[in-house]
């Protein structure tokens, strides 16, 4: 083990412990300013995209969900440590056979128009979600429901045919006001432009293409948020947004690795802003088309993984702002297995494995088997600079062990329709977001390999299938953990993907905001507790 | 004249129909569908819900049925509802974005003509002088510099470094509370950068055109005659030469009319201006067919009407055209 590798391992270990237990990194030169929590001021944030609709059930873009998340509540939500806790439901019980969930709703919660929230709203939300006429993308989890009923004003019960673990988290869906929507066409509802929810912020105005403003809900059941207003400015260009941040036009934005590492370490910037760093819920991977004879051989996939230096990719592409991905889970969460035996960077071993697989080095420095050179194309989508750089670094590394790699960049829509859906690709460089529930049935189960389904690489493994079904069929976290740890061991062996990295989220927030406590869930989870001391309020 | 007019107007309809047919076909040829753009790679979406969405938008019908249905709506001057999840009427989406694009373009156009014409005249009159060369360099720099780069530099200097001007958007926060004068001032400050950069970039074409027509006119015999009569140089240039030199430039003005409602995507994106360019771009990227078709139809109509007006003006000016004789 070279010194450098040791150092790398140490670094990774440090990062793991950092996000597993204590708070993630925070960087600032701002003097810790005193000042008691005070009401007032506004948080102005920028967004690349404009929300589409503020009825979350109909929305499919992140901007819509971000804003709607402050206006509506679900029955349950994830807390700062990514554990489920009650939201509009005060508590819940899962029956011993795992088939029935009973939610006890919080009494006295009011809609923003003053009406009381009751089990009727929950029942309506369920019904409209599974209604075939509703154009929603979120009905799948709710189709598993056998029966849903409101037992009384504050009790709601659902039953399932078989135990279904992601069910509980699915009730985090935004509950819609029945008294405003029942019997009406939800697609034409004015709530899409001026929502009425139960959340900490009430809707104030939306000027299309410019901004969207929310106001603190004084009657919020968790207490009135300190910040009076939340303004969402639509700024479609990242460089413009960065300049707005520096000029004080917005208070917070997510920085890119270059901005975080190279452009914001000036004393002025650090005095005006706090920078935060924690693992994002996403990973980037190199996936192989397992239907092709070339990639059917596990040794070939392992060899490619051995030949790729992930640490170098993180340094080159993310300027170090990320960590090595070993599997499909986020480091530090309960489903993540810390030490899986996935292929480490070792070109000699890669060459050994390729030799075993029958490849012989040709005179041109390219491996060949049965007279056919080892050459394949990595495809990725246009407009993602990081993926492009990643592919180039991999290309160079694989060249050294004698594999010829070509890179092809495609516009997203044609990439999906003409190549992914038709299985016409060799290897892809893409990313997944990591969901909060660890169920990965859709991405790894062998039944999900049809066109337009997510196991598009064609991964089929009986043991993984079994563990996936066991894992979603129980509410017992220990049992689920064993399933998902088992899956990670198999994936580490099989290498259907070479898992590359988990990038860091790098938000900067104006230093006048106090009460921000970075946690595994990020920083936004306790927005209602953020405050600006009276002396420093700006808006 | 009436005959000519009726003939021209009658010809517009088949032309428009052809345009819609071609654009409809072309946009459906692009890979990907609105449903796909919304649901691709999302673990939450099953084949059934995807089918449901397709049915909701009417995408399960054969293409010609979709076209005829769309055409039927158009006959009632209805562009239909957007395929974005908000499902709003396309007309609403367009109407809320036209004012800002239109006013920006009108101001930029006035500035462009107001600056380019004198510059062109000056360059022609002082042909090959240092001034002429200086002007050439200036306008070609404007033409050659990528506007997005220049925009970012200006934003950095005037917005971040000196804080003289706002960086993006069209209103400040708290705009609602300003007085009427305050609002105008606020809007003006926001528009300084986008308009001056847009104008700078477009000066070259028009001023060079003005210079060459002016040079052509100045070499005509009647100008020599005017000078020989002993007229002052000022009168020769502005009264005799300019009038004739301006005619082709005014034709150019006619051609730029349809462009007034089209915005520049790059520009609007950088300055966060909620205009037509952004709307159209987002529509194309999301394969929002009704929105894209709506904007294209409006653009096509304006182009056709603009051409018609130009032809009519020629006809009024030249009897040979309106009587169909040569």
UniProtKB/TrEMBL annotation, chain A:
One of its GO terms (biological process) is peptide transport. Coiled coil: none annotated. Keywords: Signal, Transport. Belongs to the bacterial solute-binding protein 5 family. GO terms for cellular component: ATP-binding cassette (ABC) transporter complex; outer membrane-bounded periplasmic space. The keyword Transport applies. This is Peptide-binding protein. Residues 83-446 form the Solute-binding protein family domain. It comes from the Bacteria. GO terms for molecular function: peptide transmembrane transporter activity. Pfam families: SBP_bac_5. It comes from Geomonas limicola. Residues 1-23 form the signal peptide.
Automatic annotation (TrEMBL), chain B:
Pfam families: BPD_transp_1 (PF00528), BPD_transp_1_N (PF19300). GO terms for biological process: transmembrane transport. The chain crosses the membrane at residues 12-31, 102-125, 137-158, 187-206, 245-271, 291-317. GO terms for cellular component: plasma membrane. The keyword RNA-binding does not apply. CDD domains: TM_PBP2 (cd06261). It is a multi-pass membrane protein. PANTHER family: INNER MEMBRANE ABC TRANSPORTER, OLIGOPEPTIDE TRANSPORT SYSTEM PERMEASE PROTEIN APPB. This is Peptide ABC transporter permease. It comes from Geomonas limicola.
């Amino acid at each position: 083990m070279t010194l450098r590798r040791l150092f790398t391992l140490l670094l990774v270990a440090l990062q793991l412990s950092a996000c597993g237990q204590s708070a993630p990194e925070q960087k600032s030169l701002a003097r810790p300013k005193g000042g008691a929590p005070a009401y007032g001021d506004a948080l102005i944030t920028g967004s690349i995209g404009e929300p589409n609709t503020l009825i979350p059930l109909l929305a499919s873009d992140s901007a819509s969900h971000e804003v709607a998340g402050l206006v509506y509540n679900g029955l349950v939500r994830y807390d700062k440590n990514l554990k489920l806790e009650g939201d509009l439901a005060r508590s819940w019980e899962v029956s011993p056979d795992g088939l029935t969930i009973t939610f006890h709703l919080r009494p006295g919660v009011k809609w923003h128009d003053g009406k009381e929230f009751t089990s009727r709203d929950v029942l309506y939300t369920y019904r409209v979600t599974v209604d075939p006429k509703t154009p929603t993308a979120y009905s799948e989890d709710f189709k598993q429901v056998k029966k849903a009923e409101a037992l009384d004003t504050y009790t709601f019960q659902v039953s399932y045919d078989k135990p279904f673990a992601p069910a509980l988290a699915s009730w985090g869906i935004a509950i819609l006001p029945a008294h405003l929507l029942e019997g009406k066409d939800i697609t034409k509802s004015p709530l899409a432009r001026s929502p009425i929810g139960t959340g900490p912020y009430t809707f104030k105005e939306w000027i299309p293409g410019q901004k969207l403003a929310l106001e603190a809900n004084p009657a919020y059941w968790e207490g009135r948020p300190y910040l009076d207003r939340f303004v969402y400015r639509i700024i479609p260009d990242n460089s413009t947004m960065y300049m707005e941040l520096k000029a004080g036009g917005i208070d917070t934005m997510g920085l890119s690795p270059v901005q975080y590492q190279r452009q914001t370490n000036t004393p002025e910037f650090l005095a005006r802003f706090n920078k935060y760093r924690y693992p994002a819920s996403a990973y980037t991977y190199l996936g192989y088309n397992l239907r092709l004879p070339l990639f059917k051989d596990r040794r070939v996939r392992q060899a490619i993984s051995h030949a790729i230096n992930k640490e170098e990719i993180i340094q080159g592409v993310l300027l170090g702002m990320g960590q090595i991905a070993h599997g499909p889970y986020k480091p530090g969460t309960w489903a993540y297995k810390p030490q899986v035996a996935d292929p480490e960077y070792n070109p000699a071993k890669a060459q050994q494995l390729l030799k075993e697989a029958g490849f012989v080095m040709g005179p041109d420095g390219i491996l060949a088997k049965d007279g056919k050179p080892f050459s394949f194309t990595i495809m990725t989508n246009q407009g993602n600079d990081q993926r492009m750089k990643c592919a180039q670094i991999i290309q160079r590394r694989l060249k050294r062990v004698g594999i010829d790699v070509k890179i092809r960049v495609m516009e997203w829509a044609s990439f999906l329709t003409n190549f992914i859906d038709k299985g016409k690709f060799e290897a892809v460089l893409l990313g997944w977001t990591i969901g909060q529930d660890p169920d990965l049935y859709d991405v790894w189960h062998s039944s999900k390999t049809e066109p337009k389904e997510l196991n598009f690489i064609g991964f089929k493994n009986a043991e993984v299938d079994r563990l996936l079904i066991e894992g979603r069929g129980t509410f017992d976290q220990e049992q689920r953990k064993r399933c998902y740890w088992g899956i990670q061991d198999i994936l580490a062996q099989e290498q259907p993907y070479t898992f590359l990295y988990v990038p860091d989220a790098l938000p900067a927030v104006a230093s006048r905001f106090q009460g921000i406590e970075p946690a595994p869930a990020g920083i936004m989870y306790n927005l209602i507790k953020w405050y600006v001391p009276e002396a420093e309020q700006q808006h | 004249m009436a005959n000519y007019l009726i003939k021209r107007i009658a010809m517009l309809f088949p032309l428009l129909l052809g345009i819609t047919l071609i654009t409809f076909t072309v946009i459906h040829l692009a890979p990907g569908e609105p449903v796909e753009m919304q649901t691709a790679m999302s673990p939450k979406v099953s084949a059934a819900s995807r089918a449901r969405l397709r049915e909701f938008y009417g995408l399960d019908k054969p293409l010609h049925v979709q076209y005829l249905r769309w055409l039927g709506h158009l006959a009632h001057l209805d562009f239909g509802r957007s395929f974005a999840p908000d499902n709003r009427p396309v007309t609403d989406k367009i109407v809320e974005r036209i004012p800002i694009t239109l006013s920006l373009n009108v101001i930029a156009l006035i500035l462009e003509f107001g600056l380019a014409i004198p510059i062109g005249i000056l360059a022609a009159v002082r042909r090959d002088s240092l001034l002429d060369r200086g002007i050439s360099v200036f306008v070609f720099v404007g033409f050659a510099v990528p506007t997005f780069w220049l925009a970012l530099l200006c934003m950095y200097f005037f917005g971040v470094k000196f804080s003289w001007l706002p960086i993006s958007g069209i209103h400040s926060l708290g705009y609602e509370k300003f007085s009427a004068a305050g609002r105008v001032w606020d809007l003006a400050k926001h528009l300084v950068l986008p308009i001056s950069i847009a104008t700078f970039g477009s000066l070259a074409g028009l001023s060079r055109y003005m210079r060459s027509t002016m040079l052509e006119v100045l070499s005509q015999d009647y100008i020599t005659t005017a000078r020989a009569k002993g007229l002052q140089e000022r009168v020769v240039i502005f009264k005799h030469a300019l009038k004739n030199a301006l005619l082709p430039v005014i034709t150019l003005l006619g051609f730029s009319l349809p462009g007034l409602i089209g915005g520049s995507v790059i520009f609007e994106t950088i300055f966060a201006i909620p205009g037509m360019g952004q709307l159209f771009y987002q529509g194309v990227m999301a394969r929002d067919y009704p929105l894209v078709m709506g904007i294209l139809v409006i653009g096509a109509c304006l182009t056709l009407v603009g051409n018609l007006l130009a032809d009519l003006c020629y006809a009024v000016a030249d009897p040979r055209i309106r009587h169909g004789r040569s």
